[in-house]
Specification:
Elements lengths: L1 H34 L5 H5 L3 H14 L4 E7 L3 E6 L3 E6 L6 E2 L1 H13 L5 E5 L2 E2 L1 H9 L2 E4 L1 H11 L12
Helix pairs in contact: 1-3, 4-5
């Protein structure tokens, strides 16, 4: 009886994992389709935070980077790792928001702790001058909303790779 119970638990676990993977693939396809409809910063602003991060990840996938999402980023946030050598933190802020230096310091600290020495901060707003200076000194590239939208437009339509080759 115990063996039957263990087999039932393993089968249930297998189907739950399979369902999670199928859901994730459907989610990535939805993000890819959504990505091709983005025409303005307003389209990016109205995305959920998770969708915004995955849209940013889609940009880098289409640019040829190997993209991995990170659940443990800084103070419990999420982030994107490109080619295992570059940390990207995408923050969805309103257009008038200027990124504070504290955000760049948190990213730099997290990079040092994990032995990665290149980073990127992305926002829909812009950056304060002291934040740009700190980022420059710590090899962190600053991408504002206008640059992000241009990157998005430059990579739209490049998602023609076979579906399972991109995961």
């Amino acid at each position: 009886m115990l063996i039957l119970f263990l087999i039932l638990i393993m089968i249930t676990w297998f189907f739950m994992e399979l369902a999670k993977r199928i859901y994730h693939i459907i989610y990535l396809v939805r993000i890819s389709l959504l990505f091709d409809t983005i025409n303005s910063k307003e389209d990016l602003l109205f995305l959920r935070n998770k969708d915004f991060e995955y849209v940013v990840a889609e940009i880098f996938k289409r640019m040829g980077y190997r993209v991995r999402m990170s659940d443990h980023f800084g103070e419990g946030g999420t982030g994107i790792i490109l080619n295992d050598i570059l940390y990207v933190q995408a923050r969805k802020e309103r257009y008038q928001h200027l990124m504070e230096i504290e955000q760049a310091k948190k990213l730099a600290k997290h990079m040092r702790e994990n032995g990665i020495y290149r980073g990127m901060l992305i926002t829909l707003g812009d950056f304060k001058n002291n934040t740009r200076n700190f980022c420059h000194l710590n090899v962190i590239k600053c991408i504002n909303g206008n640059q992000l939208l241009q990157m998005c437009k430059d990579t739209q339509g490049l998602g023609t790779l076979p579906l399972f080759e991109r995961f």
